[in-house]
Amino acid sequence: MRSSPFRQLSSGRVAALVVAMVLLFQTAIPAQIVPRGAQTLPTLAYDAALVLLGNGEFSAALEAAGREYAAGIRAGNQRWIDSIATATVIGESQFELGSLRDAVTAYDEAILLGATHAEWLLAVQFPTQGPQPSPRPRVATWGRSARGTKPATLPDTMTIRQAGADPQKVLQQGGVLAAPVNLPVRPQEIMRALVIALYRRGVILGPLAGEGAAIDEINTALSKRPAPANHWSQAWIDIALGTAAWSQGRAEQAAPLLERGLAIGGKLDHPLTPWGLIVLGQIALGRDDAVGGAKLFEEATYAAAEFGDARALEEAFRLLFSAHQLAGTPGVPATM
């Protein structure tokens, strides 16, 4: 198990951080509970696994995510996009438990599914009105962002058209003839999970992360920009594609994609923003710029707090402390 840099902090500051994180974990489960058959994807059970993961109950999170993965939507033997999210939580749980080989296998599954269903965002019925600035007060209490952006308000749930079975294939190969259906989905959560899978796989494998069918296929798929043209969801593609490029050691190609994808229209942060900042911080560390990396990780803590992303919050704080030490700055970061 990795040692936590928080052990070196004062008990008062640790307590303040723990309280902040707990408050964020408590917002992870949607208030509306709907029957399984009509439940938004990813489901409430997936959110429960995320809460277990955030609370450090890694074995329980793995078990919960495994059950949800087994219950995922299938078309024949092919899993659908909901399994991108659950496979990523399985990977995160295995990562925290120290089972790195199993974690990479889960991340590869999530990434391959992302490539297989690469054009799914084109089937999402996005609202006609674009994202608006959030009217609520800032969440972070440990500092203030210097980026000049605001968090965007996005609908938690949108609708996606799931294609039915191909009648010609059913006639030739057998199976069940099914009509297309509309399903409620959280596209930002599925894209966030894909980015986490790409990021964590890169962290674990290091220089070897550029090898394998999963990373090759997702790069090919994302390079086609599979989201509505001239639409704000292209920012998600930028973050995912930039993260994939970074994991392959292509930092020069990754950085401009990540920077462009951080904010919608250069003004509004979105749920993938904290991960984009984390990857940019990693790029800075790779360039021996610990000071610049620390600033990016600090910004990632603010963005993670705004969107209630406990995984990004923990990762950003951990890396912030490490960058602070690498920079040779005495004491602890002011934000901690």
By DSSP, the count of extended strands is 9
End-to-end Cα distance = 22 Å
Global shape = globular
- Taking all residues together, what is the mean pLDDT? 86
Give the helix tally: 13
Main beta sheet, described?
A: 4 strands, mixed
Strand content: 5-15%
Low-confidence stretches: 1-37, 173-177
Helix content: 40-55%
Radius of gyration: 20 Å
Strand order of the largest sheet: 4-5-9-8
**Which structural class do the helices and strands define?**
alpha+beta
N to C succession of SSEs: HHHEEHHEEEEHEHHHHEEHHH
List the helices and strands and how they pair.
Layout: H1 11-26, H2 44-54, H3 58-70, E1 74-75, E2 78-79, H4 82-97, H5 100-116, E3 124-125, E4 132-133, E5 150-153, E6 158-162, H6 167-173, E7 181-185, H7 187-205, H8 213-222, H9 234-247, H10 251-261, E8 263-264, E9 268-269, H11 273-286, H12 290-306, H13 310-326
Parallel strand pairs: 5-9
Antiparallel strand pairs: 1-2, 3-6, 4-5, 6-7, 8-9
Helix pairs in contact: 2-3, 2-4, 3-4, 4-5, 4-7, 5-7, 5-8, 7-9, 8-9, 9-10, 9-11, 10-11, 11-12, 11-13, 12-13
